[in-house]
Structure prediction request, 406 residues.
Amino acid sequence: MNTSGTVDAQATAPSRVPYRTLIWLAVATFTTGIDGYVLAGLLPDIAADLDVTAALAGQLVAVFALTSAVAGPILGALTSGWEQRRTILAALATFIAGNLLTAIAPTYAMALSGRVVAALGGCLLGAAVTGYVVHLVPERHRGRALSFVLGGWMTATALGVPVGLILGQSSWRLPLILVSAVGAAALVGIALRLPHLRYPSSSLRARLRPLAQPRLVAGLLVSTGVLCASYICFTYAVLILGPTHSAPWMMIVLMCAYGVASMSGNAVTGRLADRFSPVRVLTLILAGLLVNALFGALSLALAAPAAVAVLSVVWFVLAGIGNGGHAVPQQARLAAMAPASASVVMALNASAISLGNALGGGAGGLALAGGLDPSRLPLLAAAVLAVTLPLHLLVAHWPRRPRPVR
Prediction:
């Protein structure tokens, strides 16, 4: 601890994972995660209330992802030299303000502005929280700590769609108010419980230097590939599963099952990443996702209708486990590549994830518009994973050449 009372990142780390402290960061990630899902099922109501088309209402979701992808690395780089508790508090406060602005917006333009503000806070919050955990917790416990904090986001995956649909029955604005209220609770908890933390002193140029490494860029593209393959199917899950699960309540149950599976994958791989190397765990997950995508494609194409009803659920749940489980070992691997630039790297990883989301939804939409049957989308996801897995292996075995001392 320095003279200002701020804990330096290189100071003695806690011997165990400080769950009582990190729980407030988990709540914060829950708010940002659920924010991306609560509006997904309410676009017709939003369009009618704001007097716009459903396509324009959908841009409230798209602009959030696009803003996050572009602004995340910039804000992460600019704030990585700041005291990190204050960075997290400022980011969370901005996120809450953006959601409240959207919730009370009388016009579409104001609602869109609110989504931009919320995205600016959300993308910085995600990068700052992950970087904070990486620096606060010793490496031997890093996987568990990351999985605990990211568990908030995985819980949001499980609850986002049903919470949005249930609360949105009275007003689409109510879920956003709920997100803001939970965020406010996290804001108070972080202010009271989270210790100050400042990363080792370095110039902005020094923090950005690792980002010129081709190996790190390739590693970030692995995140893009995984999320692209995921969202090729997740975005159009209703179309893929609808023929055998047509009742509305069935889709809510299946989405909840996917979210619970993601949470389980996140929790298990966090511990595995501590016991084994993150690279080994990630290799196993990517190989499993590829095999499962091929399994889903073959099941949907060749199985009898009665069998498809069961096999499609097995495929969807296993995909949830893999897609949720890849996050911790991937982030731990990226952080190890450039530990002094962790917050910047995590911001770039968030952008890579947002890019993957957009590419996956776009690729799936283009394929469907071109006449591809929804049941064939897992095969397209398998093609993306067939490129992503070798890229991951290339990064894992990339020769590490020491930089010359200047």
Observations:
- The longest strand covers residues 7-8.
- The first helix runs from residue 19 to 35.
